[in-house]
Write a structure and sequence with these properties.
By secondary structure, this protein is α/β, with parallel strands linked by helices. The chain has 15 helices and 19 strands. The chain has 2 domains: about 190 residues, Rossmann fold, CATH 3.40.50.720; about 210 residues, FAD/NAD(P)-binding domain (3-Layer(bba) Sandwich).
Amino acid sequence: MRHIAIIGSGPAGYYSAEAAQKKYGEDVAVDIIDRLPVPFGLIRTGVAPDHQSIKAVSRRYEKTNLGDNVRFVGNVTVGEDVSIDELQGLYDAVVLATGAPHDRALDIPGSDMNGVIGSAAFVGWYNGHPDFKDLDPPLDAKSVAIIGNGNVALDVARILAKTEDEFVGSDIVGHALNSLKQSKVEQITFLGRRGPHQIAMTPKELGELGKLERAKPYVEIDDFPDIGDDAMLEPGMRKSVTHLRDFLISDPEESLKPLGINFDFFAMPIEIQGDGKVEKLIVEKTALDKDLRSAGTGELYELECQMVISCIGYRTPPIEGVPYEHGRGRFANSDGRILPGLYCVGWARRGPSGTIGTNKPDGFAIIETVAEDIGSGNRKEGREGLDRLFGERGVETVTFRDWK
């Protein structure tokens, strides 16, 4: 029997467990270990609550977990309840699938001010992550600045802009919905360093922005290149830019909507100002060089706002004793190998890139690597040893069936 421990119960973790089941059949025991007492990681706490079709992939993970040879072990903090060295002593392979749940730092003056929130915290708040249940974002703000031009930024804006009725069918948590019902937000501004042709927003999510009951998106025609240049974009990006161009079309009824969502392209925040809390954002206009990299032009303007939400990317938290690339915010690895018997997969391996589905081939590939390395030699104790260790330490775990 081969024994594999997977740290993290998100998509990368479950796809890796599924791959191990298919590779070894009954000749494997997989323990999926997670800090939270609930499974599914990013699916549960990262995907927007009004995107239920995306969250439905958890049914596939549940099927994996209901097999006898895959076990969810929740409420366990690696590094506190058990060390990486101890896990390596118990399992033939340890796979880090911890994702990238921490925000990249917004490294500008004033970023530590009240009213500046990272997207991991804000998304965690409306998704019911226990770390962020007491966040209390200042929703009495009239104006909110969202830094970033990706799908997370779109999710944040959409959640801020929706009416209570538009959340029907979602699984948004009660404390967030109650707060959002009292929101005073009248203007949301996206700030992105580059232009419409460089956004990381996908067509579906951009299309949703144009169908909100009480909000209208606005763009500036001067920010766009010639419409003929759209033909050179790949199809998905071309659809996204088409949505942006549709936002240019004026509709008298749409203009009466009480909430405006503005796109400020070629805009680089350089300082947050306020007397103890956010009052304004100092922004520098940018221009693109021949390699489409942005650089400041020296032209500044002020954006009045009372809340800033930073959606500029994520990083994997380091674990003591595991080599780490601080510049990339991920574990140091070569094709998923970190050290003998220690591996990483998903965002922990490659950084925060790709979609949920990208983790499937990644998970199957890492199990092939594990199989190549562990071969058919002597087997270790696995879950029996882990249970004994936790019994000695009084660690109370939560299994999948407990959670169900």
